[in-house]
Amino acid sequence: MEQKNIILGITGSIAAYKGAELANLLTKEGKAVHAIMTKAGMEFITPLTLKSLTKQRVYHDMFDEVAYEDIRHISLAKRADVFVIAPATANIIGKIASGIADDMLSTVVMATTAPVIICPAMNTAMYENPIVQQNIKKLESVGYIFVEPKESRLACGDLGKGAMADVAVIVDKINHVLGVAADASSKPKYTPTQTAQYSLEDVAEHLNDPQIAQLFARVEDIWGKLLKDSERQMYLGFYEDLGLPIDVIEFLLHYCIDMGKKNNNYIQTVAQNWADEGIFTKEAAAEHVRLFNNEYREILRYFGIVGREPIAKEVEYMKRWLVEDGFSMSIIQIAAEKAITNTAKAPLAYADGILNKYKESGITTVAQIEALEKDYYDNIKSFKRPTAKKAKPAAKTAQNYKGRKWDYEKLAQMEKSYIDKKVGK
Q1: C-alpha distance across the termini of the chain, in Å
Q2: Does residue 231 surpass a pLDDT of 80?
Q3: Of 38, 82, 212, 350, which cross-links 339 as Cys (Cβ 3.0–4.6 Å)?
Q4: pLDDT, mean of residues 182-206
Q5: Residues 110, 126: Cα–Cα separation, whole Å
């Protein structure tokens, strides 16, 4: 497997020592960790510590010369498979949200196109400050990934939310974003009809894993009860076999509960579908749910389909129309109405053909469709079929002749005379 490059940003927080631990674990997993430290971060741990752990150069000054290397911040930004900031202070979060790039770390993160994972660490009051929360939401809305801090006794002595997430949780998130832990092709499929893959002994053994213990604790908190053995086997399957992270499993449960679907079979089906769809982040799950609850159901209503979930092929059509082709709901509704009018049925495949023609023609608005149809009907109205020439009436003839009178005796004699000659009399 190709070695993955992790850019690790460390800022000025007491949790910087956890950043060193994170660098150590990622390096032991075989990843190349390239650390960038802020000036404040170097007040807590030294660049030498990170260099010793990662066996890689540690960056902190934008203007240091490095032989054989192109522009530093661009080079590092391009190198990243995943960009992680752990710990992330309120200061660096505010900088990124405001587009400020005034040091090595903020400049590189602005230049990267890799997924960015931010792990906040700060005092509870700072974390809960509306400005900080607004900055977090702003960054989440454009694709930045946050690993929520945990509740703990903080360095300042306060007890509350703000301590950086456990290093194991962050590693798990990094691996899922990279697609390492979530590579379904390397794992057996877990399906709702399968018997449990884990014995009770397996479950008991997994309880020693802090991640699994945390998973069960969070699920029990959501349900407000202790899990049965069979349910522990099920959720272990979600995490181990399907590769769903803990925060995605939590999101999935809240979604099913909000839908009034608390049956384990339904929850298993949703989990399998999400894994098949490649939904391994909370952000992807939120987008899927938004489409599923709003657009997908509304589109089905356009076709007169209500009271059931969309089948896989319908989801494939609708996802392509909305996400890949970027059609508005209004245009999809027009295609649905045309499909029903032309076929007296509700075929999404027929509507797909209509939308493909719109796409090929570069049609992206309802106004363009209306203009196209107006031109079509105007052409029909202006088209005159050639008419056949009317035949001239026959000339009237004078009706002034007299009827003839025939001498039938004379005719009979003439006929007899003709026959006599023929026979030689």
Answers
A1: 126
A2: yes
A3: 350
A4: 50
A5: 24
Find tokens 């999400």 and name the residue: 274
β-sheet bridge partners, residue 75 = none
Q: Are 310 and 300 in contact (CB under 8 A)?
A: yes
Q: Which of 310, 303, 333 is nearest to 321 (CA)?
A: 333
The C-alpha R_g of the chain, in whole angstroms, comes to: 39
d(CA 351, CA 370): 17
Residue type, 152: S
Active site annotation includes 156: yes
Residue that the structure tokens 């960054």 belong to: 139
Encoding tokens for residue 15? 């949790």
Mean pLDDT calculated for residue range 184-192: 41
Most distant pair of Cα atoms in the chain: their distance:
157
Per the DSSP assignment, residues forming a β-bridge with 88 are 120
What would the pLDDT profile of 59-93 be if each residue is shown by its tens digit?
887 765 443 344 444 667 788 899 999 999 999 99
Active-site option among 71, 74, 131, 156: 156
Beta strand ranges found along 38-112 (DSSP E): 82-88
Distances (CA, A) of 12 to 19, 157, 273, 412: 11, 18, 41, 141
Under DSSP, the state recorded for 291 is I
Q: How many CB atoms lie within 10 A of CB 410?
A: 9
Q: For residue 299, what are the contacts with CB-CB under 8 A and spacing of at least 6?
A: 318, 321, 329, 332, 333, 336
Higher-pLDDT residue of 225, 61: 225
The candidate with the shortest Cα–Cα distance to 320, out of 286, 278, 284, 349, is 349
Tokens of 320: 């392509």
**Cβ 269 vs Cβ 242: under 8 Å:** no
